[in-house]
TrEMBL record, chain A:
Belongs to the ABC transporter superfamily. The keyword Transport applies. PROSITE patterns: ABC_TRANSPORTER_1, ABC_TRANSPORTER_2. One of its GO terms (molecular function) is branched-chain amino acid transmembrane transporter activity. CDD domains: ABC_TM1139_LivF_branched. This is Amino acid/amide ABC transporter ATP-binding protein 2 (HAAT family). It comes from the Bacteria. GO terms for biological process: L-amino acid transport. SMART domains: AAA (SM00382).
Automatic annotation (TrEMBL), chain B:
This is Amino acid/amide ABC transporter membrane protein 1 (HAAT family). It is a multi-pass membrane protein. Keywords: Amino-acid transport, Cell inner membrane, Cell membrane, Membrane, Transmembrane, Transmembrane helix, Transport. It is found in: Cell membrane. Belongs to the binding-protein-dependent transport system permease family. LivHM subfamily. It comes from the Bacteria.
């Protein structure tokens, strides 16, 4: 098991955002985490990246307990994230943003940079443009590319489709598939449940800080409750 | 008007000198603000400590007359290094004791500001009650360098128009510009600087890149403190006196300079420092030097009223700097 989240509880002040979340990600998988607004998806990813401390529970990554490991050290351990809202450094150029992904690493990163530019030709055309002046879709590509530059074993993606036109969403999802096929494990948080379930191998449904369903993604696509709650009733599924 | 024209040149030279000092101190306010969104109120005392460290060096070396040539260069280098260490060390300690515990606790920014004011008062009293009487053996709350020989000869070297230029003017402006260039290089051209800029622009994203925020914060305090230490030395060379409160007035003016340039923006702080120094100096031709404090506050209030984002407008967040 590459990533194991064991019964974690996380609080903002006195408010409990996660009330016992357990999930697992196997090497090579795409796992998706779906749920309504405020369910705790972002908090789960932040906890895995060490941005929020755990009140209780454990996170085990690649065989080691990282529950107490500082956030910046988890990057070197192999956890990369493209956060909600993208978190682009607005005053840095595209290339500087990408190189920030290699900040913690010593040695060469030429290869990774070339690979990111190959994956996102749009970024390559705009190397010297400031991050803050990029369009939403471009920023999302930059956020994913930057996370890839950390050379992650698992890539955490927090709503990469947010605010994007349908065509662009399809394109981003296609790239996520490509990244996975090249060998990176993916944990994908999505509102866009339909497309996420079509892409992922397995899925978890989060509700008010708890996992209420865990199943194969294809199974959840046919689950009447999930269809009613997250897939807009009986929208056609192919 | 004749009066004004006659004094314009000298006032400009003086304004540039004092503006250099404001600019160096302003860098510390603006860097810490950029990274932590905190106004480090005690930065003024970090500056004061630099001045006192310089006095310590002069006394220790036993300067008995103005020095020149290589001796002066050596003395100034030594003094600047000691002052940078003293001020930088104080700033680090301040961060450790007064700010970090609150930050780790997730306290509000108001709590941090109050802690900053407390730390500022504490350091003032420490200088007044411990450092001045026990380290320097004086109990009058002031160290007047009048009873010490001058370190730098203050006769004019040459004139530009009707403005006589002295060696201390040259040293102050040159030293300040060197420090600013070094800092700019560091922030925009090194890995450490990339960490600082990333943290200022988006702290959470910076952590996701593997940036150690605690280390960035420490570095920021250290750098800002070191700049203030240099400013303390330059202040001493220029005014030749110090008391435990000098930091207060210089600090407020440097803070004004930082706001004037756009707080969080390094180049803005430099610009703000020079603009404030010049405005203050020119206005004192009409109003008299005793009104210069008023000028600074009027500028601060006007900026806050009409252009709260400062001249350069953008913060460290957005700016390349
Ligand atoms: N900084 C914060 N301070 C206080 N409460 C917070 C904070 N961030 C999140 N919360 C609360 O924690 C709960 C979970 O939030 P979270 O952002 O993880 O939800 P989410 O599933 O990502 O939602 P969305 O789909 O809208 O992004 C919510 O009730 C939210 O109000
Ligand atoms: Mg979210």
């Amino acid at each position: 098991m590459l990533l194991e989240v064991r019964d974690i509880h996380v609080h903002y002040g006195k408010i409990a955002a996660l009330k016992g979340v357990t999930l697992e990600v196997e090497e090579g998988e795409i796992v998706t985490l779906i749920g309504a607004n405020g369910a705790g998806k972002t908090t789960t990813l932040k906890s895995i990246s060490g941005l929020r401390p755990l009140t209780s529970g454990r996170i085990v990554f690649d065989g080691t307990d990282i529950s107490k490991l500082q956030g910046h050290k988890r990057v070197l351990a192999g956890i990369g994230q493209a956060p909600e809202g993208r978190g682009i450094f607005p005053g840095m150029t595209v290339q500087e943003n990408l190189l920030m992904g290699a900040y913690a690493r010593k040695g060469t990163f030429r290869e990774e940079l070339d690979e990111v530019y190959e994956l996102f030709p749009r970024l390559s055309e705009r190397r010297t443009q400031f991050g803050g002046t990029m369009s939403g879709g471009e920023q999302q590509m930059l956020a994913i590319g930057r996370a890839l530059m950390t050379n992650p074993k698992v890539l955490l993606l927090d709503e990469p489709s947010m605010g994007l036109a349908p065509m662009l969403v399809a394109q981003i999802f296609e790239i996520v598939r490509e990244i996975n096929q090249r060998g990176t494990t993916v944990l994908l948080v999505e509102q866009n449940a339909m497309q996420a379930l079509q892409l992922a191998h397995r899925a978890y449904v989060l509700e008010s800080g708890r996992v209420v369903k865990a199943a194969d993604a294809s199974g959840l696509l046919d689950d009447p409750e999930v269809r009613a709650a997250y897939l807009g009733g009986d929208l056609g599924v192919d | 008007m004749d009066n004004f024209l006659g004094q314009f040149g000298p006032a400009t030279v003086g304004g540039l000198a004092i503006g250099s000092i404001y600019a160096l101190v302003a860098l510390g306010y603006t860097m810490v603000y950029g990274v932590l969104r905190l106004i480090n109120f005690a930065h003024s005392e970090v500056f004061t400590i630099g001045g006192f460290a310089a006095v310590g060096v002069f006394l220790m070396v036993g300067v008995s007359a103005p020095v020149g040539g290589f001796a002066l260069i050596g003395l100034l280098l030594l003094t600047v290094l000691v002052a940078m260490a003293a001020s930088g060390g104080t700033a680090l300690l301040l961060e450790q004791v007064a700010y970090r515990p609150l930050r780790k606790h997730g306290s509000s920014r108001l709590a941090a500001l109050i802690s900053a004011i407390g730390a500022s008062l504490f350091l003032q009293e420490l200088i007044k009650l411990v450092i001045i009487p026990h380290v320097f053996g004086q109990s009058n709350g002031a160290i007047q360098l009048q009873n010490m020989p001058r370190v730098i000869d203050k006769t004019p070297l040459f004139s530009i128009g009707n403005a006589p230029i002295r060696l201390d003017h040259v040293i102050i402006v040159v030293a300040a510009v060197i420090m600013m260039v070094l800092l700019d290089r560091l922030v925009n051209g090194t890995r450490v600087g990339r960490g600082i800029r990333a943290t200022a622009q988006d702290p959470e994203a910076a952590v996701l890149m593997g940036v150690n925020i605690d280390k960035v914060v420490r570095t920021t305090f250290l750098l800002g403190g070191a700049m203030a230490g240099v400013a303390g030395v330059l202040y001493l060379l220029y005014f030749e006196n110090l008391d435990y409160r000098v930091g207060f007035v210089v600090g407020i003016k440097a803070f004004t300079a930082a706001v004037l340039g756009g707080i969080g923006n390094l180049r803005g702080a430099l610009l703000g420092g020079f603009v404030l120094g010049l405005v203050e100096s020119w206005s004192s031709i009409f109003l008299g030097a005793e009104w210069s404090e008023v000028t600074a506050f009027v500028v601060l209030v006007l900026v806050l009223m009409f252009r709260p984002t400062g001249i350069l407008g953008e913060s460290l967040q957005r700016a390349r700097a």
